[in-house]
Amino acid sequence: MHTLLHLRLASSANSHYSLFAMSAASLALPSSLSSLRANGAAPPRCFRLHNPSRSRVFMSVSVGSQAVVDDALFADYKPTSAFLFPGQGAQAVGMGKEAQSVPAAAELYKKANDILGFDLLDVCINGPKEKLDSTVISQPAIYVTSLAAVELLRTRDGGQQIIDSVDVTCGLSLGEYTALAFAGAFSFEEGLKLVKLRGEAMQEAADAAKSAMVSVIGLDSEKVQQLCDAANQEVDEADKVQIANYLCPGNYAVSGGVKGVEAVEAKAKSFKARMTVRLAVAGAFHTSFMDPAVSRLEAALAATQVRTPRIPVISNVDAQPHADSETIKNILARQVTSPVQWETTVKTLLTKGLKKSYELGPGKVIAGIVKRMDKGAEIENIGA
Length: 384
Fold this sequence. Notes:
The chain has helices at 33-38, 103-116, 120-126, 129-133, 135-155, 159-165, 175-182, 188-207, 221-232, 258-267, 291-302, 325-335, 342-351, 365-373; strands at residues 3-10, 16-23, 45-48, 56-63, 66-68, 81-85, 168-171, 211-217, 241-248, 251-257, 275-278, 313-314, 356-360, 379-382.
């Protein structure tokens, strides 16, 4: 039986080292580098996180083009500094204007124009709002502007030091792609192509059936679930609703058929909700209404090289970091039909000892959520 020796070193203030082995009999891994090469496989690769003060070094063995990486590599992450990236809804006319003063940031918009086939910066700066708000434009616009904000921060006094200190990242829905790009899982260009296709696929799925989203304000998640159950008793299967976005206590988004959403709105007061706000989105995101988008995303992800992130990237689907590229691909495909676990993500970061976070990109939605969950939390907005 051949065994893959998986070496993991973690150094921090209380340095610890763990060494473990896992069976790789099914891969029939050769036992030496020379035989690896003879079998057409690449030698072990060493991935190093760029944060020298909290470095992690691990080894993986590549067989053909497949690298075997422990998906739980980041399971015991201890966050101190986080980059948080916004999702759809954060866009606003005028965003991206500040970025033009920094060549590296301005260059991202030029690259985007070539990939998207239209002048993204013009829509970002000049609108009109209706055009910028469309799913197919807002998603790439937020992705590019958020990464442009990183470049603006880099030019700031002490900015590079802040970037180097970040040891965890995540993003709200669309923002997960931005976080993965920042963490080196794929390039800016690869990520933008995925985001472009994601927006198009979600728009097409929304056009295929009448659906909507509504925010329910002032109730805990259990009460919102009861509200959904009550609404579902009055509509057909095709119009049923569910919680699609667990944002923070007192703020949950419900998705589903239009009649189901209308039933939620009608019953909300009787459940003591403070208010409901219909969201300006194309349809019922993060529910089965987005099923038609999954196959297109799976195909695009299969053709994309996804690498192990250099720092933990927390998934919207299960609020956990993942290291294995195939697992990351599967989760990104499932993300559009799965509820967003943002409340659990932020709560976990804070519980694990997060000291400082930065919201990079348009808007201040994420900062508001973090502050609602912990008034003492330290978070800074970096716009572009």
